[in-house]
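#struct-pred

JT: dropping the chains for the assembly here, can someone run the whole complex?
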Amino acid sequence: MATGILNIKGRIWWIVALVVLCLVPFVLPRFYVYLLSIILLFGLFAMSNNFPLGFGGIYQLHHAVFYGVGAYGTALVITKSGLSPWIAFIVGPLIAAFLGLVMGIICIRLSKLYFGMLQISLGSLVWAVVYRWYSFTGGDDGIHGISVPDIISSYKGAYYFTLIVTGISLYVLYRLLKSPYGSVLQGIRDNPVRSSMIGVNVKKHQLLALVIAGFFAGVAGTLFVVVDNTVFPDMMFWTLSLEAVIMCLLGGWLTFLGPMLGAALIVIIRTFVSTYTLYWALVLGIIFTLVIFFLPNGVLGWIEDAVKRKPNLAEAKE
Amino acid sequence: MRRSVLFVVFMVFVMGLVWSQSGYSANTIKVGIVDTYSGPATTYTQDALDGFKLATEQINAKGGILGKKLEYTTRDEKFKPDIGLAMAKELVLKEKVDILAGTINSGTALAVSDFAKKEKMPFFVFYSKSEKIIGEKGHKYVFNMNENTEMAGRAAAVALSKKPYVKYWIAGDDYEYGHAIADATWNNLKKMKAGVQLLGQSWWKVGEADFTPYITQILAAKPDFIIVATGGSGMVNFQKAAKATGLVQKIPFYQHTANELGTLLPQGKDAPEGVWGTSNYFFYYPETPANKAFVDDFRKAFNRYPKASALVGFMTAQFIAEGYKKAGKIDNEAFIKAIEGMSLDSPVGPLAIRACDHQLELPTYWGVTKKDPKYDFLISGDIQVIAPKDYMPTCQDVLKLRK
Amino acid sequence: MDVTGVLNQVFVGLSRTVILFIVSSGLSLILGVLRIPNVAHGSLYMIGAFMAFTLSKLFGGGDMGFWMALIGAPLAVALISLVAERGIFQYLYEREHLMLILLTFAFSLVFGDLVKIVWGGEYKSVPVPYMFQGFIPLIGGLPFPLYNLFLLVCGPIIAILLWLLVNKTKIGKIARAAAVDMEMVGAVGINVSWVFASVFVIGCLLAGLGGVLVAPTVSVTLGMDHTLIIEAFLIVIMGGLGNIWGALLGALIFGLSQSLGILIWPQFGIIFPYLAVVIVLIFRPTGLLKATW
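RK: done, full complex below.
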């Protein structure tokens, strides 16, 4: 399968990585802890995008809407309702999942580029409403200084919370991909006609993928609120969606962890190139171009191909 | 093989970026500036930065601050609050700057301000106009170095209340800034002058290119005066449309910063005459030696006239320098204590940072656009000075917003 | 709202339609024939506007400057696109659409920063040519700028020229055939690669032309590509991929729903064009007119 990096041998690496990630805050300065939290949550965002994109073959081109709606849901519940933030953390992703369902129902009849474009129009609608509804969403200024429970308000606290939630989310996504449902979804991606001929309800499976993706994007948005205590309409602008897709492709969209790697690379490049030059978008653009040219399967995809040689390559492309 | 070489180079590049250390020497005071240096906002941010740069050079030439040199580093947040906030965090946590400054974007300003409060880090806002910065979300560590929407609106209301107009129309860019400016102007005007009426309002999306429909609507309603609440590139766009449709000859209107260089310079001689505006700085007014010296220095260094934001950057660096000198040590709490209520000479006369809310007390200049043979762009004529005491909200009013 | 108000909004919507049509017809051409969803199309529009600024200034800013800009800027944009096509895109025609979207997005990032390097970050203003300054009274005596009238004349001319190009010229016929079956055209001995290059350059030239025409009515800024490109994509999809008349119809719907939407619900006026796209795609999933795909 395309998730080759997660075989039994890989499980040891998993545990090592987890231990390292748990110890990181005791070794690294605060800024790197913060940066890691951002990488993890962007990674989750990109991976949730890749769930329908890489494994479902659906052109999920406006994923940021679900990320932004999840973040706004959480932020609004915290600031407006007076309910416990812990409840808000669940409500946000649920709203995002619900939006995923509604938009999915409307878009699912179309395929490929048409699906993506309809999703972009619908997403732009949502963006416009958030951008304009000053009295409720704070308009273009956004909402700032959102208070989160004390235990997760420090850099370390926010990091561990992000790590735990991201970890659980990745595990769930992984199980889903390995489940019979995941196999059917990938089957649909590889051959939709055959899948429907053997009696698979293609649309229903794809719709579920969109809801799941929406939910986990909402989780990532909620994590952003925890880490940065702020939301604003740019979080659901289409450019962020394209960035998410780039994270998937950069890391490797046919691999499970590729989008996480892609997110890490983009966040790192953006953070550190910008300390040298105001033209960091130029550097980012050139790197994307080179990767698309030379590593069409992404960085992780290329590593997997190199490590596993031909058989895996054939499998991944199947 | 070519791919693996590329990949290795790429990873080395990435790792090199991560582990690189900042090039600062220990004996400096570092200011981290986060602002938008791409897009239309650059018109203002570049001048703020260059003003800051000019003052920094002058301060260092005179021996620096407490034997230390003043330095600064910039980050381009591209008008995105999340990136701006991440950059502010990077500046404080990794670059270890002593002070934060910048942001034309109110969203970024508010997000960074919240972070500065948590880190107990002084933060000087250059050119964001949100009233929330020192109002509702104000705190001990944030300083506002330019006027905000409430101040601009009040200043305009002071000037308009002396005019004979009764029937008003409000129009503007439909975003936070536009509404805030319009509300501030109108609410204060209502208080200052009884009997004014609002005939109607029109709002267009930010970046609107075509104002004709709105202008037609306004012409049909025949108001005496229009309050136009545009910002950024909307300023120029509206003035162009007002000229093209002949609006400017038919109904007088007001825009905050309409008579400011940032709005008039890009239009050259094509800008409409007769537009009312308010600004906090002109390079040609007041004609004092202090202003002339500042303009000369600025032109020598950057080969252009300074805009209003240049004054902001120029004064911010000076307040930082004098604040530390007065505190006598590099300590944030002592610095804030020192700078509260401090008054410094500036190109426009003495300027003070109000102790209660950390707002810089700026004079506002009301005036109307006109051609001038000396320049190949329009300038402000009929300048009327509105002193800070005549238009700034009281400490009580501001602190009430903080609850 | 009275009749004159509505009528006036319609005229304004039409002026906007012209710009949207010119830019999206170029996008549609490239999508239909080359199958490249060119996100960098918006950047070329922006470059066109900046070029117009430079050229108009170079030739004294008056009428002469405007006409020189109108000719020179699209050509300059075409030249840039020719280099990009020969240098990069020609190797990528077989790639997945997603890859092409991202590659062109990467290009738009690069172009954005290059424009900043060349022209600086400040916004620029292109004067309305003297001959088009002023306005004519519409029904009810309301003023309509002459420049907008000029735009309304330009739109149909370009539409007809494009139609002639695609349907009556040899290169148009080859391009249409190549869009349907590339191998077949190659097999009969036609150099498909150069046909594709020509189509790409013509499409990009239209983006540049749109940029020049819009320049006098707005302030030319970095970021003007972002809003436009997404609108252009939606118009192309709504009208039918690769269909010139579809692009015109889509631009009409988009332009008019935007200007009339403001009358209906000012605060949320900007949602109407998106709403229109959603409704069209729900009922006509592959666009209003026949797509070439």
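JT: nice. DSSP finds 14 helices and two strands in chain A. Chain A has one domain: 4-238.
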